[in-house]
Amino acid sequence: MAADNEEWATVSVEDLRSINVDEISFEAESPTDSPRAQGDAQVVSIDVDELLNLEYIEEDCGDSPKPPVLEGTDGICTVKNERPCNVEMLHPKALVCFSDWCLDGEKFSWRIWMTICYLFAFGLSLSLIVLWAYVFFPFQLPQVGFWENWIFNFVAHPVGNYIVARAPMGWFARQIMWHLQSDRSLGKEQRREITKRLQRCLRWVPLVDSLWCATEHIIFAGFHIFPVPFATVLSCIPAAWVSMAVFYRVLPSEARTLPSTLDSLKFTMCAWMGYCTTFIVMLFYTAFFPTATTEVQLAMSCSIAFLEWLVVKVVFGLGKHWRVPEHLMREMRTAMRLPVIVFKAMILSEAKGIVVIASMIVPEVIAVFSSFVVVVIDLTSETNKLRLTHLRSSRQLVRGAHGLFHNLRALRKRLAEIHGNCQQITLQEFRDATWSAQEIHLLNEVSSSLSTIIMLEVCEVMAPAIFVILLMCLRSNTFLAQNESFFLGLAEANFQESLIRNAYSLLLEVAMLVATDLFSRKTIGLSFVSVMRSVLQCDFSFWLSTLSAAYVGWLTVLVRHTGHDMNFKFLWLP
């Protein structure tokens, strides 16, 4: 009997995965049929789809063994006899967010106040970076030559190049650090040291972009060519590629030799190419939009929305091919939507008619709502998401929708249970407690998934606000107004109309943020406010770098010193 039990215990998850049935139930034989079942009779219900989800549990919880017994509970599988995990397995964002539920956690009013402070600090930092690069430094006319414009060529433009180049390196480094944390062959101290070295490289390698671009402009100046025609294409983008190659070469050997590093580099470069393509398209969009008729403007807005969707779709497909983690791809999706959001704030005053204005704003609202729906579907059940993508009949659609609704209720119930348990313990007990691998996985997924939607919302709120601040600075009577005539579209913009329409856009985005928060509370019982503070607290520098790159890149393609003249009458031609 002992030998038989030992043989049964060696059945692996892979063996069970190979069974081609939807659900298998094993019932212990009756005492009359098999003596070995006496005293050990039990019922084990195994769902093969649930077994497929164990790989995610294993990633989140170190060396947790494969649990021998599973049973379905409210659409979310629970694991018995599972080795518990320490709270250190929680991502810092999840730890900050969910620790507030404890007895001695921070009060709700204080959390609201801290969220407002973080949001204000983020917006202020973003505004200062944008203004410092291209508004604080006074420029000369482009016609006076290269050396007379030394402030632009050797101060403003290198600073702008540094800010823009740091963004794709940050995306790449973020993927590497995630894979470092998942590599069990490295010790904790070793991972910490590699992360420090990676962060040092992230600070100085973007200078390569600035030096390369400045050198290229000096060479052009030697041939009496200034401004460089379409400098973004001829100098800025090649400089970013060179700096990324240098960044890859100076990576710590432990990080560069990871199997996933090369795929992460490919994914980052593809995302960067899509990002730059969107910038180039939006430059032409901005140039021709004001003079277009109402019908053409509407067609242009719809085309841009389709292009944005297509670029994100292609990059997502490549990310899945290279096995990039889902939450990192969601961050890239948010980053790649930023150029469209930034440019639309500038040309909102040029829209002819309420229908055109709606065609510019509504797609961004839909993007936020659809992103939240996709996240909810991902959080509820991987199996039902799989069934919805392989529909063959209306019956399967009804079953899949019913399963998603059932799992959504189960997800809300699970989060409510965790919330209730945390409310009964102190913060120290929360940190000392042991958690199941599924709870760790669930809390990490909730915090990482919602963070990308929150930052997309933040950018949509920041876009009209920063544009209004920039326009007011350039129209002021102070030293900040010296560069107004050097920006395409800004000098010709209707100041009063821009203020009014961007104010309405700002109010709409704030209302959308409140509506999304209420919808999140209703569906999964979690407020955006707590998640927003944790994101801004833990990923402040990453998102500041990502958003500032979009705004600085936007001004780079607008300033006349970079040769983006849509009239094709370049000053350097004889």
UniProtKB/TrEMBL annotation:
Give the residue spans that cross the bilayer: 116-139, 201-226, 232-251, 272-292, 298-319, 453-474, 540-559
**Which keywords accompany this UniProt record?**
Membrane, Transmembrane, Transmembrane helix
Stated name of the protein: Uncharacterized protein
The record lists the lineage as: Eukaryota, Sar, Alveolata, Dinophyceae, Suessiales
**Keyword Transmembrane helix set for record:** yes
Could you tell me which species this protein originates from?
Answer: Durusdinium trenchii
Q: Organism's domain of life?
A: Eukaryota
